[in-house]
Write the structure tokens for this entry.
Amino acid sequence: MTTTEVQGGTNGLGPGRVLRPRAKVLPEHARSHNRSLVLQTLYRSGRLSRADLARETGLTRVTVSDLVAELLAEGLVVELGQRESARPGKPAVLLDIDRGAHQIVGVDLSDHDRFRGAVMDLDGAILARAEVMLADDEGGSAATGETAAAKVDALVDRLVAAATAPILGLGVGSPGVVDLSGTILTAPNLGWKDLPLQRRLASRTGLPVVVANDANVAALAEHTYGDAAGDMMLIRIGHGIGAGLLVAGALVYGSHYAAGEIGQVMVGTDLGLDATYSRDQVLEHWLSVPQLQRGIQAAHASGNDATPVLREAGQRLGIALAPVVGALNLSEIVLSGPTELLDGPLAEATVHTLRNRTMAENHADLSLRMTTQGQDIVLRGAAVLVLSGQLGVS
């Protein structure tokens, strides 16, 4: 994917696109698909010969040799030397993606008080970090609108300058609703509406750029670098609440790119069955980090245990998730956010509520766990955006 294609089209992660190609396709699509298939196999396994690649992918040896020659010439694949072998004949030459030839810039715009970024290698390891505060002075108001966008520009400039190898691309995880062209349709907390951030950064840097919703980006990180095993919903809990959904190996976007915006869903029937939409009854009212912290502080100030606050938040999350789990028969829910708040009574209450509100025999193997990626989950997912968009691997 060229920079021009990124600026004018989608981000390469369109609806229904399976993240990891596994088999051959029709001739008219074969070249690019088979190229991604070879790169994906090397990325996940590494140190394979041409014959190994042919066996793993099901491609002919001639096709593999042709593709490998192309990838070697582009500097994406490197020969590692001959494999030690007791068999007679010439030893096979081992291949791998050249993991040190390129670096990736990732940016996380989801924190409420700062933008964070990193330079990473192709395996998602962080090589350098940078951040910019949203407020210019301690206690000052956080930047919004064009002022916040200018802070993104400045952060990206610092990260690009910090790279020590050619940059494969720039990935950005942003709060709000983001379409497939990388335009942020709405991000209320940042005062953004119809901001073409992908095109803006591509024009500024001359690099391939991919911008996506931060919860979707976090789901990609768990898929690639974590322990995600199948269909999965990742719930990202911070200043607000969002979710990334992977079904049949592909991200789910929704008709208006707002799939996973569960934070604004009314939960429970506190106001009666005929109640209309109220911001005081949406999931974020109980589950966002600021709300949880306020509830815990109030409990402690009154000399009470804060566990009921966490349990009620977990129950409300279970109420919101039960229809999704029931409709999609999900096998895994992953929580991303402050471990000290989410892991324990809150998670336990969520699972209990889910099991009470769905048919047990259909969801007996449902698991709910914390992410394995920690606070860098969006940064590492931004690396996956670039890997998927540029190389077709994840």
The first strand starts at residue 77 and ends at 82. Confidence is low (pLDDT under 50) at residues 1-9. Residues 38 and 232 are 26 Å apart (CA to CA).
